[in-house]
Amino acid sequence: MEQPDKQQSEIFDLEVDGFAKSTLLDMANWTKYLGILGFILLALFLVFGVLVGVFLPQIMENMGGAPPPASVPVKIIVFVIVWVAVSCYPSFALIKYAVTIKAAILSQNRAAFNQSINYLKNMFRYTAVLLSLYILFFIVNFAFSVGRL
């Protein structure tokens, strides 16, 4: 009975050769770049969204239209802040993965390696749920807008 357990543990005891190490280190650099780029884009979206919310009444007046109700700019700003807050985790997880995987490979630390893989798994899971919710939001919006026609 111990033989299958031993075989199964041998299957999952992987060794990482030089090529895999260099590829993982290169991936860590690109992953860190993507995480930083994600934070920069979120910051730009936050600034742009808050500016639109603040200056929307003046923009509407300058275009000759009636200013929106007072609640519209507040709703825009709250929506942008919530969206940015919810969207920060994937970039955070990418940076944590990059830093942890690099340290794990250089120090040959299995626990840190497993932790870094967990960050990557959580990032993919979170992103999949988030994208599913965005798609659902657009489908519901579309359904309600078609119903008004």
In short:
The chain is mostly helical and 149 residues long.
Task: Summarize the structure in words.
By secondary structure, the protein is mostly helical. The protein has one domain. The protein is 89% helix and 0% strand. The chain contains four helices and no strands. It starts with a helix and ends with a helix.
Keywords:
149 residues; mainly alpha; 4 helices; elongated
Proportion of residues in extended strands: under 5%
Structural class: mainly alpha
> Percent helix among the residues?
over 70%
Number of strands: 0
Segments where pLDDT lies below 50 for 5+ residues? none
**Main sheet: strands, sense, barrel:** none
How many helices? 4
Shape: elongated
Radius of gyration: 23 Å
How many structural units, i.e. domains?
1
Average of the residue pLDDT scores: 88
H/E series: HHHH
The span between the termini is: 68 Å
Topology:
Blueprint: H1 2-12, H2 18-62, H3 71-107, H4 110-148
Helix pairs in contact: 2-3, 3-4
